[in-house]
């Protein structure tokens, strides 16, 4: 079992958004929760993956497939990049 398999869907989503460079505030707006809940997701993801920081988490995601990390075989890289851009646009539009 891969360490990623221990994460919940929300933890995977948050980790992927961290890899994409979003802040906790932006992530909270995208997933419809508070920054504190995002921090809680990050803390549990850190523990499960054995990392200590957002940077280490982002590097872990990058080293394990990047855009395809969340859904290893389901999404083409071009589509993942477009989805990431769409999420950023939504986050910025809500400011």
Key features?
95 residues, mainly alpha, Arc Repressor Mutant, subunit A, 64% helix, 0% strand, globular
Can you describe what's shown?
This protein has 95 residues and is mainly alpha-helical. It has a single domain, classed as Winged helix-like DNA-binding domain superfamily/Winged helix DNA-binding domain (Arc Repressor Mutant, subunit A, Orthogonal Bundle). The protein has five helices and no strands. It is globular, with a radius of gyration of 13 Å.
Low-confidence stretches: 73-82
Radius of gyration: 13 Å
The number of helical runs is 5
CATH superfamily: Winged helix-like DNA-binding domain superfamily/Winged helix DNA-binding domain
* CATH topology label: Arc Repressor Mutant, subunit A
Count every beta strand, where a strand is a DSSP E run of 2 or more residues: 0
Q: How much β-strand is present in the residues?
A: under 5%
Shape verdict: globular
């Amino acid at each position: 079992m891969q360490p990623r398999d221990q994460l919940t869907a929300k933890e995977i989503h948050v980790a992927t958004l961290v890899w994409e460079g979003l802040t906790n505030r932006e992530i909270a707006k995208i997933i419809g929760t508070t920054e504190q809940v995002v921090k809680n997701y990050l803390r549990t993801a850190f523990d499960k993956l054995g990392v200590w920081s957002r940077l280490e988490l982002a590097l872990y995601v990058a080293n394990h497939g990047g855009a395809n990390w969340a859904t290893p075989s389901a999404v083409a890289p071009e589509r993942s990049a477009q989805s990431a851009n769409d999420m950023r646009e939504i986050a910025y539009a809500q400011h």
